[in-house]
From TrEMBL:
Keywords: ATP-binding, Hydrolase, Nucleotide-binding, Transport. Transmembrane segments: none annotated. Residues 5-222 form the ABC transporter domain. It comes from Paenibacillus allorhizoplanae. InterPro entries: AAA+_ATPase, ABC_transporter-like_ATP-bd, ABC_transporter-like_CS, ABC_transpr_LolD-like, MacB-like_ATP-bd, P-loop_NTPase. The gene is yknY_7. GO terms for molecular function: ATP binding; hydrolase activity. It is an enzyme of class 3 (hydrolase). The keyword Glycoprotein does not apply. Its EC number is 3.6.3.-. This is ABC transporter ATP-binding protein YknY.
Length: 223
């Protein structure tokens, strides 16, 4: 099976105080369509740098990254933005909801940027909120929702755009353990529906809920 994500000998450097820091050191990794992968490692291990490259938020200094048959290095910024908009959904630890918008409006916002009409947007937003069991809270603002509910709104915002890949960076980091399990259950459900899920985490219990665990240390794959 051809990999959806192909990373070959990728390295990323940063320069600090005259010293070269290897954030990623010769990483080779394939992820096929429909996988549920956890990228695990301590803070500073390079896992978030890899997430940024996979998510087309950054590019590597060395190596090759092919996403769904396209070599990412050769693309312009506008093309990278289009890939992020169409193919990749992001879920972050801090939820990144706009406080003055309702749950419905937060989910709707990326669809507005995509240029969809109100008539096109409405069924997508309602379907996404229903998928995370928050349809009855669609008029509530983030301050009126619990942490777990806010994260579910963030997931719904991602789902509304129907991306084949979901990148989740420490998605349970701001939640209690019970709520964290509920959020991981949602990711498992989405994976069963065919989406490729990549979770970045330092939490072993979170990582073990994925079908494959990739471990990082000091910018290198260790397992």
């Amino acid at each position: 099976m051809t990999a959806l994500i192909q990373i070959e000998h990728v390295s990323k450097f940063y320069y600090m105080g005259g010293e070269t820091i290897r954030a990623l050191d010769d990483i080779t990794l394939d992820i096929v369509q429909g996988e549920f992968v956890a990228i695990m490692g301590p803070s500073g291990s390079g896992k978030s740098t890899l997430m940024n490259i996979i998510g087309c938020l950054d590019v590597s200094d060395e190596g090759l990254y092919v996403l769904d048959g396209k070599q990412i290095h050769s693309l312009k910024d506008s093309q990278l933005a289009e890939i992020r908009n169409r193919k990749i959904g992001f879920v972050f630890q801090s939820f990144n909801l706009l406080p003055r918008l309702s749950a419905y409006e937060n989910v709707e916002l990326p669809l507005i940027y995509r240029g969809l009409s109100r008539k096109q947007r409405e069924p997508l937003v309602l379907q996404a909120l229903e998928a995370v069991d928050l349809l009855d809270r669609r008029k509530h603002f983030p301050s009126e929702l619990s942490g777990g509910q806010q994260q579910r709104v963030a997931i719904a915002r991602t789902l509304a755009g129907d991306p084949p890949i979901i990148l989740a960076d420490e998605p349970t980091g701001a939640l209690d353990s019970k709520t964290g399990v509920e959020i991981m259950d949602i990711f498992r459900m989405l994976n069963e529906q065919g989406r490729t899920i990549i979770v970045i985490t330092h939490d072993r219990q979170v990582a073990e809920q994925a079908k494959r665990v990739v471990r990082f240390r000091d910018g290198r794959l260790v397992h």
